[in-house]
Amino acid sequence: MRDVKTWVLAGLIGIGAFLANGAKADVLTVAGGCFWCVEADFEKLPGVRGVVSGYTGGTVDNPTYKQVTRGGTGHYEAVQIDFNPARISREVLLEKFLRSVDPTDAGGQFCDRGDSYRTAIFVSNAGEKAAAEAAISKAQGALGKKVVTPVLKAARFYPAEDYHQDYYKGKNLVVTRFGPIKQSKAYKKYRDACGRDARVKQLWGNAAAFVN
Which member of 34, 37, 111, 194 is catalytic? Predict the structure, then answer.
């Protein structure tokens, strides 16, 4: 599996190349329940250069997965989406994000319950805040239901442990109740069993993002 430090260094080199060519890169940080799933969804999009799974919004430095999921650190499971705004806009990403989760659920997402699995959009300035609020207002109008996804001030983002990065396409064997199976297959079984895509399609219908 890809080493996070290698990924970051490659990303920095890539950003430099984009800047040299006159097109800048940008970052959107969101929490949408299981970060494996959000990463898998957004890495499919043209214009997205990469996605990192991690933790943000909490009070503990360098949190671990075990600490975050146990609760008490205040962190969300989140992702940072590195994108080229010349190819895909923040507004499109926000629209797809809200239509790939259940933004009416304040207690977690799908089968994953608890504070670390809540949805959120993190912003760094007034322009990002306005874009997030506009996307939420539009989603709320489309659903006819209250959207509880908050817009929060960006906090320090900690990349998750190496084994969480690109989990959805990992080739290592993992032990599950089905026996030892390839990581990518275990991810698919988890996603199906958790009911993520079924709930998104039920909620959003034809407007659902990333659902076949």
Answer: 34
